[in-house]
Amino acid sequence: MKFKEFSISSGTVTALEEMGYSDATEVQEKTIPLILRGEDLMVRSQTGTGKTAAFGIGLIDIILKDRSRKALVVAPTRELAAQITNELRSIARHHRLDIFAVYGGIGMGRQTALIRRGFDIIIATPGRLLDHMHQGTLRLDAVNCIVLDEADRMLDMGFKPDIDRIMNKVARDRQVLLFSATFDSQIVGIARSYLSSPQSVEVGPVGKIEKIDEEFITLSRAEKLEKLHEVLKRETMSRALVFVSSKRGVESVCKKLNANGIDAHFVHGGRTQGQRERTVRGFQEGAFRILVATDVAARGLHIEDISHVINYDQADSNDMYTHRIGRTGRMGKGGKAITFVETDPLPKGPRGRFANRASGGYGQRPSSGGYGQRPQSGGYDQRPSSGGYGNRPSHGGHATRYGGGESHERSESSGQEGGRRPFSSGYRNRPRDQRHRRRQ
After folding, report:
1. Judging by DSSP bridges, how do beta strands 71-74 and 212-219 pair with one another?
2. Res 105: pLDDT
3. 294 alpha carbon, distance to own chain's centre
4. What is the pLDDT of residues 342-352, one digit of tens each?
5. What CATH superfamily classification does 212-342 receive?
6. Measured between alpha carbons, how far is residue 280 from residues 82, 103, 240, 291, 328 in Å?
7. Which of 141, 242, 297, 340 is most buried, by CB atoms within 10 Å?
């Protein structure tokens, strides 16, 4: 079906044609008419099927027809939020709409200024959105159309309480669009709580994408780096995404590839937002062909023409494996996924400082406890630049959970509050007679 056959504005059709799109994908053909009718939707669709454009086209034309409408798109990662923002701006290039992103890693001042000027569509991560809500810089009672994008991933990352807080603040008379790669019991629970008589749309097979050629290589941990070098030299590839389980491991693998004459770059949650954006942009523009990443990229990168995904470290679950390999085989194209299967894997369970030694990283924190990933700067969690375990509010007194920064951003693997430790066991909450005991 051609986009010009939909009941959407000519400016939107022109922008899509300028972007190289004339025919709608299956998910677009099935969802855009329902969105324009004001229906609540539950959509199961794999990444790479055009779902961002599907809800983007719908939101833009809804707002053009009724300028009192305000939309919020909630996404699990900064990278995904940034890329949704860019795509929606491209679709709306011939309309005067205020579309911008709100996510952590950058100062809140500029975001606050944009919010005060007014908005039509905001794309946000849950943590930074709640920061603005609790500081009173953003109210959601004017939002009457909300998209929960990659809802299954948000639940995996521990954002269910945040989603509840957000949904309880938006207007009661609202349209809710839920997009997910899977329809498990948690997703169904979200739909029952917040969607009103939703239409259900399912696109493509459940699980893995059929057009991806999968290869599994059995080897020891000690052989992985040499085999990775061999694969990268052997395969004909446009772009390759290499997944490593830990931040330290990512940097170690990337450094060793560079030492062997392979131009690779890396991205993980420990880098600054500016560094992450520059690296992703370079990968998108073809400045380099090999990107080494943690699972922060499994849902956060929507880049066309990734021919290969290499699982240097195996995924923690079948769902994560599906999300990883979904970076290739996008928009109906083929792709290849190569997974290294260790013959001598490290035991699962609480893992300490020598876990994941083959990739050079520390073990990820399992749900049952154990140690978390140790940042390069030392300590269990990186301290904010202002010093201390939490940001001190401007009026003095004890640090608060919502006091600036990314108080709700989750760490990549553990789902904890990123960048700071809770005060329940911290220095400031000890009795005074115990605070300096170590000095005695």
Report:
1. unpaired
2. 81
3. 11
4. 988 776 554 33
5. P-loop containing nucleotide triphosphate hydrolases (3.40.50.300)
6. 11, 16, 13, 9, 16
7. 297
C-alpha 58 chain-centroid distance? 22
At residue 84, what are phi and psi to the nearest 5 degrees? Answer: -60, -45
Structure tokens at 346: 């490290």
The domain segmentation of the chain, as residue ranges, is 3-202, 212-342, 385-431
Nearest by Cα to 103 from 249, 276, 252, 263: 276
Instruction: Please give the average per-residue pLDDT across 151-166, as a whole number.
Output: 90
Topology of domain 3-202 in CATH is Rossmann fold (3.40.50)
The DSSP secondary structure of 288-348, one letter per residue, reads -SEEEE-THHHHH---TT--EEEESS--SSHHHHHHHHTTSSGGG--EEEEEEEESSPPPP
Predicted pLDDT at 209: 55
Closest by CA to 198, choosing from 73, 37, 45, 66, is 37
Q: What is the DSSP letter of 228?
A: H
The Cα 45–Cα 181 span in angstroms is 5
